[in-house]
Amino acid sequence: MTIGLLDTDFCGPSIPRILGLENRKVHACPEGWMPIYADGPMQRLRVMSIGFLVDQPDAAVVWRGPRKSSMIETMLNSVCWGQLDCLVIDTPPGTSDEHLTVLNQIQQLPEDKVAGAVIVSTPQRVSLCDVRREIGFCSKTGLKILGLVENMSGYRCSNCSHCCNLFSSGGAEFLAKEKQLPFLGRLPLDSTLTALCDSADRFDLKSHTTEDTMKILQELFRHCPTLASACP
């Protein structure tokens, strides 16, 4: 299965760091730009991010909306993605120019080619207020919502397995029921996965995550048939 991953968070492009791809640079080809292959010669995970285009990893991208929109259009249309089974687009929080540009581009595709949006929230009311606006955005623009994920939903001690709800719990599930949307599950704080992302080392997800983390990922894939075959 071949997957493209597009990072449209210009203010905080974290994908290169998480995947251990910092300091990699994009190269031009006759058709446009070549994506970065996160898995090397296998070329099954193809990544594009503004983080590959800045001179320094800590450099701030101070762009107004039109320039951001132009870059997103370039990333979608001028990157040599090749034949993909799925393109995952990671957007920043909120409903800003990035979201409008992405939506405008994908609306030009046949309806059966667009799976929909996965909305991620933390349990607190402050976060849920933003998520309500994002749900409204999807509703107004006709974008299907695959479901809600509650992130940072408790911390399970690796020694005694006790779960402590640091940021309360259940807010996203309550909102999903209220809006009659699928609730994909709670993603707990996973200290092992966090450490691996911070270290920027490549790792096998199944070997380095807890059972709870894998369960919610499998549930997410189940709601998105295009990705289902990637998570048996």
Automatic annotation (TrEMBL):
<keyword id="KW-0004">4Fe-4S</keyword>
<keyword id="KW-0411">Iron-sulfur</keyword>
<dbReference type="GO" id="GO:0046872">
    <property type="term" value="F:metal ion binding"/>
</dbReference>
<keyword id="KW-0408">Iron</keyword>
<dbReference type="Pfam" id="PF10609">
    <property type="entry name" value="ParA"/>
</dbReference>
<dbReference type="GO" id="GO:0016226">
    <property type="term" value="P:iron-sulfur cluster assembly"/>
</dbReference>
<keyword id="KW-0479">Metal-binding</keyword>
<dbReference type="GO" id="GO:0005829">
    <property type="term" value="C:cytosol"/>
</dbReference>
<dbReference type="InterPro" id="IPR033756">
    <property type="entry name" value="YlxH/NBP35"/>
</dbReference>
<dbReference type="GO" id="GO:0051539">
    <property type="term" value="F:4 iron, 4 sulfur cluster binding"/>
</dbReference>
<keyword id="KW-0547">Nucleotide-binding</keyword>
<dbReference type="GO" id="GO:0005524">
    <property type="term" value="F:ATP binding"/>
</dbReference>
<keyword id="KW-0067">ATP-binding</keyword>
<dbReference type="InterPro" id="IPR019591">
    <property type="entry name" value="Mrp/NBP35_ATP-bd"/>
</dbReference>
<dbReference type="GO" id="GO:0140663">
    <property type="term" value="F:ATP-dependent FeS chaperone activity"/>
</dbReference>
<dbReference type="InterPro" id="IPR027417">
    <property type="entry name" value="P-loop_NTPase"/>
</dbReference>
<protein>
    <recommendedName>
        <fullName>Cytosolic Fe-S cluster assembly factor NUBP2 homolog</fullName>
    </recommendedName>
</protein>
